[in-house]
Amino acid sequence: MKAFGQNIVSSYLTPLGQSVGVHVVILIFLIVSIDFSLPEQEEKPLAAPVIEAVTIDQAALEQQIKQLKSAQLREKSAEEKRIKRLEERAKKAKADEKKLKEKLKKLEQDKKRKQEEKKKAEVAAKKAKEKQRQEKEKAKKAEQARLKKEKERKKAEEAAKKAKKKAEEAAKKRKLEEEKARKAKAERERKAKEEKERKAKEARERKARQEQEKLLQEQLAAEQAARRSARRKVVLTEAEKYKALIQAKFEQYFISDESTMRNKTCRVNISIAFNGLVTRVRSMGGDKIVCDAAERAAYKAGSMPVPKDRDVYEEIKDVTFVVQPEF
Questions:
Q1: Which helix (H) or strand (E) element contains residue 106?
Q2: Residue 269 forms beta bridges with which residues?
Q3: Nearest to residue 285, comparing CAs of 318, 311, 320?
Q4: Is the dihedral of CA 211, 212, 218, 224 positive or negative?
Q5: In terms of Cα–Cα distance, which of 266, 272, 282, 265 is closest to 245?
Q6: Contact 249, 294 (CB under 8 A)
Q7: Which of 16, 50, 64, 300 is a plausible cystine mate for 253, CB 3.0–4.6 Å?
Q8: How many alpha carbons lie under 13 Å from residue 272 in its C-beta half-sphere?
Q9: Kind plus residue range of the DSSP H or E element containing 9
């Protein structure tokens, strides 16, 4: 708005400047047109000198200059008044604009407030409608529950009547069945007594047989244990013999070195197939040089002496012994 006022002032100042410029040019022209030089004097004997001069109406000139200045002052005053009016209009327009914006803002706030009130009213109406629907639904369910309860009461009464009749019939039937059951019980007790006596007799006979069989089984078990013990001793004796044979064959292929193996040992495990073939050699701990030499010796032997007896073979199929080179 300030720039707008400045543009208006500039537009009005331009004619004023042009008017002042025109008057200044006229004034200069008038001053320049006046000849202030003195005319050449002609020497005439015995005659008085004639002086030609241009008379300047100084009062008229001053009056004209005064009029120009008055006009300029009037124009400047009028121009300042116009500029002031324009600035006042601009200020009023700015104030009006501010009032308009405030009014629009208030209208927008009122609109927003009314919309919120409308929205709240719609929500309240919706809640009221929903509450009314729920109350209606609740009443409907209550009526349905009453009708269901009434139906169940009638059904219960009918069921009670049927149950009473059925109970009477059942009581009559039960009485007949009790009599029948009493007779059947007496018959069962008689048969049970006979069966009990028979079973007691059979139990006594069975117990006598079991005791006799137990005695025979104990005698047989003792004989079998004695045979197993004797067999076990034979197997272990044979196993020890084959272990010694296996170790002897191993030592045939073991190459010792006094400089690297003195006072050193290795625990080695050899797995042997039923045909005597060496299937695996494992070091169970000890000096690496001795263990490596033991592994090479076992594989180099190729096969070991094995028994034909399966029980003895089971004892020697995994042989473990300590290799300790002697020097």
A1: helix 58-253
A2: 282, 320
A3: 320
A4: negative
A5: 272
A6: no
A7: 300
A8: 28
A9: helix 2-33
Q: What is the DSSP letter of 268?
A: E
The closest of 298, 301, 287 to 320, measured between CA atoms, is 298
Q: In what order do the strands lie in the sheet with 278-286?
A: 278-286, 266-272, 318-323
Query: What pTM was estimated for this model as a whole?
Result: 0.35
239: number of Cβ within 10 Å: 19
CB-CB neighbours of 301 under 10 Å: 19
Q: What is the pLDDT of residues 98-127, one digit of tens each?
A: 888 888 888 888 888 888 888 888 888 888
b/e sequence 263-286, b meaning 16+ C-beta within 10 Å: eebbbbebebeeebebeebebeeb
Give pLDDT tens digits for 215-261: 888 888 888 888 888 888 888 889 999 999 999 999 999 999 989 99
Q: What is the model's pLDDT at position 100?
A: 87
16-20: long-range contacts, CB 8 A cutoff, minimum separation 24: 16/75, 16/76, 16/79, 19/71, 19/72, 19/75, 20/72, 20/75
- Determine contact, residues 325/261, Cβ cutoff 8 Å: yes
- 6-45 b/e with 16+ CB inside 10 Å = b? eebbeeeeeeeeeebeebeeeeeeeeeeeeeeeeeeeeee
For residues 168-189, b (16+ Cβ closer than 10 Å) or e, as one string? eeeeeeeeeeeeeeeeeeeeee
Burial of 105 (0-12, 13-18, 19+ CB in 10 A): exposed
Distance CA 61, CA 138 (A): 112
Residue whose structure tokens are 């073991």:
254
Give the sign of the dihedral formed by CA 88, CA 94, CA 100, CA 106.
negative
Helix axis angle, 288-301 to 58-253, nearest 10°: 60
